[in-house]
Prior knowledge:
The chain is mostly helical. It contains 4 helices and no strands. The longest helix is centred in the last third of the chain and has 15 residues, at 60-74.
Amino acid sequence: MTDFASILNNMPEFISCLEDLQKGKTPIHITGMTGSQKCHFIYSLCKQSGKKCMVITYDETEAGRISHDLSFLFSREAFVFKNRDYIFYNVEASNHA
């Protein structure tokens, strides 16, 4: 897969993101890619920088697809942290023991 990670080496947008990542300028926000392009870009950034990544996406279906693709590319499991609903309200509690 090393050759697969180096395909993007001549792409100015990839070089810019890689340089930012190596300088510690994070988070990096990338838009405009579709489908497997996202995973290829993420995989290549991680492989060439030697860093780990966290991907935030719009729903659990997309998260599952990205996790599946990245698991294949990295040859190990990519984790999905499930969405959780939070309820914010004031709670008054007392103990009448």
